[in-house]
Design brief:
By secondary structure, the chain is of the alpha+beta class. It has six helices and three strands. It has one domain: NADH Oxidase (3-Layer(aba) Sandwich), CATH 3.40.109.
Amino acid sequence: MNVYECVSSLSSVRNYTEGEVSDEIIMKVMESGRLSPSAHNSQPWEFVLIKDHGMLQEMRKYCTSGSFIAQVAFAVVLLVDPKSKWHQIDGTRAAQNMVLVGWSYGLGSCWIGRIEKEELKKYLGVPDELDVLTVLPFGYFDKRRVITEKFRKNPDEVFHLNGYGTRISR
């Protein structure tokens, strides 16, 4: 699947099927985060891979908007260093790379937004100087349950040419 196909077909997945993911694919997902570009090449991230199913079950209580984490094959806790001015942007770039690479291998994911971050840091032994940006669950899913027809605003509602107000139509 090429990158545009990944982007245009990507959907958030919140229901997963059983199935282990090979270490080779897991490492490609992890590497895609590590290889992401960052401002001044600061690479203000670290990644905690969670494969233990007991830990994934336990993490439900910290991932308050993502209890589906208990169903996945693995998750990545994306940590960022707030000393870097661009840590949130750079971390988000890494997260999107990971989600897209996972998608290209048939894995679903969904950015978990509400997290008990300090409690999760304690649970995982994360140093105080790092922040939890997000938790990304990954796993196989029933493709019949994914919404293939996306609602998106029309290009003439969101595209502007040479400044705000001049619309670009396709």
